[in-house]
Every structure is written in C-alpha cells, then in structure tokens.
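ugh finaly. both done.
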Amino acid sequence: MRIAISIIVNFFLYICSSNAQLIERYHADKFTTDQGLLQNNILDIEFDGRNLCWLSFPNGIQRFDGKQFTLIPVQQGLPDNKWTKFLRTSKGEILIAHPNGISRYVDDRNEFILIYKTTDVENTGIVFIGNEGNEILIFDGIKKIVSLNDQTY
C-alpha cells in the first residue's frame, strides 16, 4: 500500500514540476456594423490569392483589406450580390455563386465575369461542391451536378 501511495505522490510531483507550455497571447478585433460591416450576420467568408477577405451577407457582399470594408455592388458580370457563396480556386481566384449563376472576380482588371448562368426560374441557389484537379463541381440548385474547368470555365 505504501508503494502505491509513493508512486502516486511521485507522479503528481513530476507533473507539477514539469515545465508547462507558455501561453501565447493573440490580439483579436471585433467587427460589427459599428466598424463598417454591412450586417452582423455573415453567410460565407473566403480569402482570395491576395489575402483579401470576402464576406457574404443576405443583403450584399463586402471585401475587407485589413483596414476598411468595401461594398461590392451589383454590376456588369455580377448580376446579383445577395445570398452568395464563395469558392477560392486553386489559382487563388474568387468565384461567387448567386441566384443568377456564378461570377468570377478578375483581380488585375477589378471586374467580374459571369461564367455560368442559371436559366431555371425555380433555382434554389447554386452550391459549390468542391475543387478536384482542374474541375470545379457545382450543384445547380435544381437537378444536376455541373463540372466547370477552372482554366477555361
């Protein structure tokens, strides 16, 4: 019995005397509508190849560069900016799924290109399934899975 107690006491002394891992402190910022967010409810978030943060909300899209939020309006190549989802391709490009299809953001020209258009009025929204090799798999929201080549779209 004394041996068992001695082993237990030595075990706890060993644990207490071992060096604990140092605690690293990280700085965290909180962003709300007071700091420039479009809304406090974020639907989706993704980072592009330049490490810019893209944020999707029920009522629009914003991009965050670490300092300020930029509203992304409906424009040529981006026919809708509500209820969107993002996918970062293997090349670091951002694809945006919206009720009208999929748009690709072209960073060096600061423009959007509509690469896939939905035609069915009953569309419930495109869902990105994933990226496999050079293929991007999507569910079109109705009845089929579509494969897009990420080189040619």
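ok and the 2nd:
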Amino acid sequence: MRLAKTFTRSLQSICLLLLFSLAMAQLEEPQLPQQWFDERSPLSDQQSISICLDSRLPEHDLHERLAQELASALLVDLEIVEVGRERHVEADYEHLYIDLINRCSIYLGFKLYPGAYPEWLDFTRPLYQARFVLITNQEGLSNFGDLAPGSRVGVTQGTDGDIRFLAYNNSLPAASRYHRLPLGQPDIALKALSEGRVDALIIWEPWWQHLAQGQPEYAEFSVINAPLVSEPAVPVGAALYTERTALRSLVDQAIQILTQDGTVQRVIEESSVPAQPAR
C-alpha cells in the first residue's frame, strides 16, 4: 500500500511537471524567418492601421465599432482583418503570434489579466470593462448567501469568474462548500442551467446576453448578487507585438481621447453589450 501511494505521488508530480513544461513552451516566442518582420509587417503603410477582430466573440460588433473610432482618432484608414478559426481559445498563442506579425497591427478583445500572457505580447490601455455574473432560473435566489451549501454551481472552467469562485469555495469548510460543475463552452453551460442540471451558473455577461438573443428563455434568467464573482470588473483592451511601442503609445492616446469625450460610452450603448468604459 505504501509503495502504491509513493507511485501515485510520483506520477502526479510527473504529470504536473509535464503540464508546467507545456505551458512554458506555449509562452515562448515562436521562431519565424526574419523576413516576416522585415517584409510582412502590417505597419509598412503609415496611412492605415490593420486591426484583427474575432467573429467568434460575443462583443464582435462592439469591437468593430471601436476599431472604426480608433482609426478615425488616429486619422488613418482602417483595414479590418477577421480571424476565422473554429473556436475561440485565448491561449492559442502560436496563431496569435502569426496574426500579429503577418496580418494585423493590433488585435481587439483581450481580457487584461496581469502576468497571464507571454512576454512577447503587449497590451493597450483598456477600452472597456465587463464582468462575470452568477445567474439562475430559480426563484428566491437574489444574493449569494441564498444558495444553500451543496448547491450545484456550473462554471465555464478556467475563466476568471471560475477561478474567483474556486478560490472562495476551497476556503470554506468542507460541509459548507458548493458543488462546482465544469460545463465547457458558454452555450453548453447555459443549456445545462436551462435544463436544471445546475442551480446557478457563472458566466461572462456578454456571452449570456449574446446567446440570449437566439434563445429567448435565457433572457429570463436572473442575476444573483455575488461580488466575489463580479467584482472587480475585468478590463478589456487590444494585444500587439511587444516591440511596437510607438504604436501602442499612439493607440493609448486615442483610447484616452475616445473615453474622455464619451465616444466609448456611446458605442457601448449602441452595441447593447453589457459593459462600461474602463476607469
């Protein structure tokens, strides 16, 4: 029995080491021929800016409007580059690297988590902020404390909302904890809530509102007041290659102007995305 336990611990350590090595490999800067930088840089035309947009994101329309306003503030022409891979994965760094070197100057729609991205990535100041929410289809649940211990809480795993909840849940005594259920992508998670397989769900609010447009029953879900999940709001900005410091400075100045003159607020309201200008 002692030998079996030792083997299990050793196997777990090896698995953790392999996962750590894989994660670090994904953070390293991919190696590309030098001519990609010299000949394919999207910054060669100083009269235009190329901006990558991800059509899979629920804020796509908002990002497109913000891209147009940014180009206008910078007094340059806009080239929109649509990224069209099958599924949105924020840690798809190899494809992201190629996009930023070969296709676009900046890439809109990145949650600005400190210390979470490779060193070859840089970010603009935030354009807006949004939040994760805890939602339910059950009556009588208005505050987080109304959820009884052992309640089934669904999560879109690996998100900031999930991590916040997981840290809180693990800090509770075992008898007071909630039953956390990873549910995958937002559409799958919302369906699980609709079918009663979970009592509540933690989800990125723009995803909920976006998917509710095609599934009216999702719009009937109510928000449970849960600051541990929703606060602080998550800032969202644009990614760019780290060596483009001059471009980042120009874009940051444009974002500041568009925020101060109310343009960002107006564009958010027109897009109906549940967000606020960044503070």
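summary for the 2nd one i guess: The first helix runs from residue 2 to 27.
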